[in-house]
Structures are given as C-alpha cells and as structure tokens.
Amino acid sequence: MSRRALALLVGLFSGSLLAAECPPLLQGELQQLRSKEHIDLCQRFAGKPLVVVNTASNCGFTPQFKGLEALYQRYKDQGLEVLGVPSDDFKQEADNSEDTAKVCFVNYGVTFAMSEPQVISGDDAIPLFRELAAQTSAPRWNFYKYVVGRDGKVIASFSSLTKPDEADLIKAVEQAIASQP
C-alpha cells in the first residue's frame, strides 16, 4: 500500500473516530455573528459545560444579556461556555446582523460566542435546536436556556422567565461544570 493511500485511510479513520466522539448535539457549525468565521460546535464545545440560549434583540427579555455575560464571566475559568443563537422565530430579532451585533456587543458587552441569526423552532430548526428539543422541549419564546453537561446531554432547560442569576439555573450550571464527559 502506498504512503498516500495509508495516510488517506488513517485520515478517514481518525475523522470517523472524531465524529463518533462528538455528541449529536454538537455536530455541525454555525457562522459567528459579525464574522465570516464559523463556530465548529464540536471543536469549540465538546467536553465542556455549556449554556445555549436563543436570543432576540428587540425582546422584553433582551436585558438578560447582562446576566448571561455575568454568568459566563463567573464560571468561564471553570470551563463554562455560553452560546447565544439569535433568532427571528418570534418576530423580535433585528432586521440585519449589524444591528444584532450592536445590541449584543456594544449595548450589553457580550464576550461569549454568538452566532448569526438562525431558525430555532419547527421543521426548519437548525440541527442544534432540533437535538435540544428532542432531549427536552423546543423554545417557546426568546431567551429559552439549555444547560448542557460535558457529555453533550441537556441537564436542564429554563423558560424565558428564568433569569441567568436564579438559583435553579446556577445549580444546573454547577452540575454541568461538575459533570464528566
């Protein structure tokens, strides 16, 4: 067997091993907000505790960005990641990505990962939100929060009414941090 053929086989085998190690929830990628770069969900979040939240720039819950950023800052040194996924599914997202980015980054100082706006509910939902819904339930409104353990399984989900600093959400985040991959 030639070196090239052997290298190809090793590459294919390694790739399938990586795919097998990546939980279904994290298989895929999303374009970063205000960037041409993409977030490889598996590469960025596999093995880490994660909070996923669908966001909207023009919602009454938009000030929760401040609490989500505080949550991220409080626990990021323990490995916590936060992923914000803007969506216009509930007709409250800005008309363009620049306005969305301004709300997130300028108005609220968000430093955690944010994607470009996505479809997060119904038949056209992106794979990430289809899997979140399969494990728990689909978001019923903006700022629905999912706490995911290091193994890629949802530990708990919280409605829009749950603020990022509420005891139940904090308890779930700490459980995710303590979880094993």
Question: How would you describe what is shown here?
Answer:
The protein is an alpha/beta fold. It has one domain (23-178): Glutaredoxin, CATH 3.40.30. Helices cover 38% and strands 16% of the residues. Mean pLDDT is 90; it is low at 1-20.
Instruction: Report the span from N to C terminus.
Output: 37 Å
Number of DSSP strand runs: 7
Radius of gyration: 17 Å
Oligomer: single chain
The CATH homologous superfamily is termed Glutaredoxin
Shape: globular
Query: How many domains comprise the coordinates?
Result: 1
Mean pLDDT: 90
**Helix count, per DSSP?**
6
| Spatial ordering of strands, largest sheet | 5-4-3-6-7
The helicity comes to 25-40%
Regions with little confidence, pLDDT below 50 for 5+ residues: 1-20
β-strand percent reads: 15-25%
CATH class: Alpha Beta
Major β-sheet annotation = 5 strands, mixed
Could you please say which CATH topology applies here?
A: Glutaredoxin
Task: Spell out the blueprint of helices and strands.
Blueprint lengths: L2 H19 L7 E3 L6 E3 H5 L4 E6 L8 H12 L5 E6 L10 H11 L5 E2 L12 H9 L9 E4 L5 E5 L8 H12 L3
Parallel strand pairs: 3-4, 4-5
Antiparallel strand pairs: 1-2, 3-6, 6-7
InterPro entries: Glutathione_peroxidase, GPX_AS, Thioredoxin-like_sf, Thioredoxin_domain
Organism: Aquipseudomonas campi
GO molecular function: peroxidase activity
What would the keywords be for this entry?
181 residues, alpha/beta, Glutaredoxin, two-stranded antiparallel sheet, 6 helices, globular, disordered N terminus
Write a compact overview of the structure shown.
The chain is of the alpha/beta class. Helices cover 38% and strands 16% of the residues.
